[in-house]
Amino acid sequence: MKLADPELQRQVESFHEALSDFVRAYLVGERDRICCHDISLTQCYALEALLRRGPSTLNALADELSLDKSTASRVVAVLQRKGYVGRAAHPGDARAVLLDVTPAGRRLHDRIRHDRIGERTELLAGFPPEVREGIADVMRRLATATRQRMACASRPTPRSA
């Protein structure tokens, strides 16, 4: 899609390339840093989601992580085996269980978060305060736009008659 404003077109293309490079580098870097803690990046995201949401069903966690139920089940099984996630009876549904982070899982999450915050502090310290605020704003907007795009893509389309 070509934009009418050539300067905007150049900036959008530059932004696209920078964002794509960032996402690739970020995912590789995060995977390498998280794996040092003996869990996968997806398992780390699961711990974060459970801490953010509180006790959750497997279906709710799978939805939060954009995973199918069988993949989420395998992620949780590993976390449970390592003692980072526990299961309890669901108070409102005898057939369901609630997943929650154990104290060991909380300690692991806090250690990983502390390491990640430390790295980002070093990175952002070199920018003026208003640029740091702008970076956070852009990142939040990108995350929101991505979630909205994913939600639209996952909705079933009406069948034609």
User: How do the strands of the widest beta sheet line up side by side?
Assistant: 1-2
**What general form does the structure show?**
globular
* Overall CATH class of the largest domain: Mainly Alpha
**And the CATH topology of the largest domain?**
Arc Repressor Mutant, subunit A
Strand content: 5-15%
Largest sheet: 2 strands, antiparallel
Can you tell me the CATH superfamily of the largest domain? Winged helix-like DNA-binding domain superfamily/Winged helix DNA-binding domain
Order of helices and strands: HHHHEEHH
- Alpha-carbon distance between the two ends: 32 Å
- Secondary-structure arrangement, i.e. CATH architecture of the largest domain: Orthogonal Bundle
pLDDT < 50 runs, ≥5 residues: none
Structural class determined from secondary elements: mainly alpha
The helix count comes to 6
Number of domains: 2
Q: What is the average of the pLDDT values?
A: 88
Which percent range fits the helix content? 55-70%
Keywords:
Arc Repressor Mutant, subunit A, 161 residues, 6% strand, single chain, mainly alpha
Structural commentary:
This protein has 161 residues and is mostly helical. The protein folds into two domains: 1-36; 37-153, Arc Repressor Mutant, subunit A (Orthogonal Bundle). 70% of the residues lie in helices and 6% in strands. It has six helices and two strands. It has helices spanning 6-35, 41-53, 58-65, 69-81, 103-124, 129-154, and strands at 85-89, 97-101. Strands 1-2 form a two-stranded antiparallel sheet. A hairpin with a 7-residue loop joins strand 1 and strand 2. It is globular. The model has no long low-confidence stretch (mean pLDDT 88).
